[in-house]
Amino acid sequence: MKIGIIGSGNIGGNLGKHWAKAGHKVLFSSRHPAELNSLVKEAGSNAEARSVTDTFEANADVYLLAMPFKAIDKIAELYAGEYGNKVIIDATNPYPERDGAIAQEVRDANYNASEYTAMKFGTAKTVKAFNTIRAEHLRDRAFRTTDKLAIPYAAQDQESGDVAKQLIEDIGFDALYIGNLTDTHIMDPEQSIYGKSLSRKELKELVNNVRVH
User: Fold this and answer.
1) To the nearest whole percent, how much of the chain has pLDDT over 70?
2) How many CB atoms within 10 Å of residue 25?
3) Residue 130, pLDDT score
4) Cβ-contact 39, 17 below 8 angstroms
5) Which of 1, 21, 37, 168 is close enough to 61 for a disulfide, judged by CB 3.0 to 4.6 Å?
6) What band does 213 get if pLDDT is binned at 50, 70 and 90?
7) How does 168-189 read in b/e, with b if 16+ C-beta sit within 10 Å?
8) Which architecture, in CATH terms, is 2-212?
C-alpha cells in the first residue's frame, strides 16, 4: 500500500518507519520536508519526504492523521478534493491544553472525537486506531512474535476496517475490533482503554467489562 503520513512526530514517525520496514510505500509529510531527512534515512528505501500538499496529491491508498487535533478542520478543508473515497486512519487526540477550544468542544459534545474527524473528512472512510498506545511502546514493541500488544481499532465500514487490521498486524501487533465510530469514546483521552498497553485477551476483557458496566 501507499501510505501518506500527515504529522511525522512520535506516532506518525514510528508508524511510518514500521510500515516501510513491512514493505509499504511511505510518504512522510511536513511543511518543511527537508527537516524529515533523518527520519526518511532511518525508514529506508520505501520512504520519502514530501510537503503535505504533495502527499495528498500523491494519491495514496491510506492517509494517517497524526498531527495535532486542532489541525483537522484546516487539513480537511484544504485537501477535500484529494482524499475522497480513501481510507483515513485517525490517530489524533483532542487535548484542550494543546489544541484549544475545539478540543474542549469535542470532549464536551454528544459525539466523540473519531465521529468529528469522520464528519470533517466526509468523503473518506474513517478508521480510529493508534491513538491509545504510548509512543514508546509503538516504537519498541513492534514486530514481536510473542507477547504482542494489542491495538484497538474502530471503523466506518468493512473495507476501512480490513485495511486497519492489516496495517496493525503487518507491524507485529494484534488487532482488536472495538466496533464502529460511535463506539470509540472508550479510546479517547482519560477514558478506559486510553494509554493501556495490554495483550489482545487482556484488552478484550477490559473492553467487555467497561461495556457491561
Assistant:
1) 100
2) 17
3) 98
4) yes
5) 1
6) low
7) bebbbbbbbebbbbebbebbbb
8) 3-Layer(aba) Sandwich (3.40)
**125 strand-pairing partners:** 87
The three cell numbers of residue 210 are 467497561
DSSP secondary structure, the chain, as one string? -EEEEE--SHHHHHHHHHHHHTT-EEEEE-SSGGGGHHHHHHH-TTEEEE-HHHHHHT--SEEEE-S-GGGHHHHHHHTTTTSTT-EEEE-----HHHHTHHHHHHHHSSS-HHHHHHHHTTTSEEEEESSSS-HHHHHHSTT-SSSPPEEEEEESSHHHHHHHHHHHHTTT-EEEEEESGGGGGGGSTTSTTTT----HHHHHHHHHHHHH-
Looking at the DSSP bridge assignments, the partners of residue 160 are none
Q: Which residue has the cell 464536551?
A: 108
For the stretch 81-131, pLDDT in tens is: 999 999 999 999 999 999 999 999 999 998 999 999 999 999 999 999 999
C-alpha cell recorded at residue 43 = 525508514
**Planar angle of CA 197, 65, 191, nearest 5 degrees:** 40
Beta bridge partners of 64: 5, 89
Q: What is the pLDDT of residues 119-150, one digit of tens each?
A: 999 999 999 999 999 999 999 999 999 999 99
